[in-house]
Amino acid sequence: MSLDGCGAPEQGVDIQVGANEVVLSGKVRSEGAPVGGAFVRLLDASGEFTAEVVSSAEGDFRFFAAPGTWTIRALHRSGNGQASVSAEGPGVHPVEVAVA
């Protein structure tokens, strides 16, 4: 499945973060190996769906978000998983999601 032309930023590259930007960036993994093609969902503190991207071939994903507590859920044919991240201020906030 190609993401060309969908408007999503290229995943897995270094980015410059502005003074007020919150970026949630990470990898989807299964038994330590990167998982590409996973549907990665961003849920707010109340569990409401906010956004979705597809992980790159290297398992990378990225969301631009507001400060707060977020849940990142990954869905893949090899399994599902989720992780929480608290992004109280600007910057890049790393998170890994293990699917099983």
Question: What's a quick, concise take on this entry?
Answer:
Helices cover 0% and strands 54% of the residues. It has 100 residues and is mainly beta. The protein has one domain (22-98): Immunoglobulin-like (Sandwich), CATH 2.60.40.
Poorly predicted ranges: 1-9
Query: Secondary-structure element sequence?
Result: EEEEEEEE
Global mean pLDDT = 88
Q: How would you name the CATH homologous superfamily?
A: Carboxypeptidase-like, regulatory domain
The number of strands is 8
Q: How many DSSP helices? A: 0
Shape: globular
Largest β sheet strand count, sense and barrel closure: 4 strands, mixed
Strand content: over 45%
Compute the CA-based radius of gyration.
Answer: 13 Å
Summarize the structure in words.
- With 100 residues, this protein is mainly β.
- It has a single domain, classed as Immunoglobulin-like (Sandwich).
- It is 0% helix and 54% strand.
- It is built from no helices and eight strands.
- The strands form two sheets. Strands 1, 2, 5 and 8 form a four-stranded mixed sheet that branches.
- It starts with 21 loop residues before the first strand and ends with a strand.
- The N terminus is likely disordered.
- Pfam families: DUF1416 (PF07210).
Question: What are the main properties of this structure?
Answer:
100 residues, Immunoglobulin-like, 8 strands, mainly beta, four-stranded antiparallel sheet, four-stranded mixed sheet, disordered N terminus
In terms of topology, how is this protein built?
Blueprint: E1 22-30, E2 33-34, E3 39-43, E4 49-54, E5 60-65, E6 68-76, E7 79-87, E8 91-98
Parallel strand pairs: 1-8
Antiparallel strand pairs: 1-2, 1-5, 3-4, 3-6, 6-7
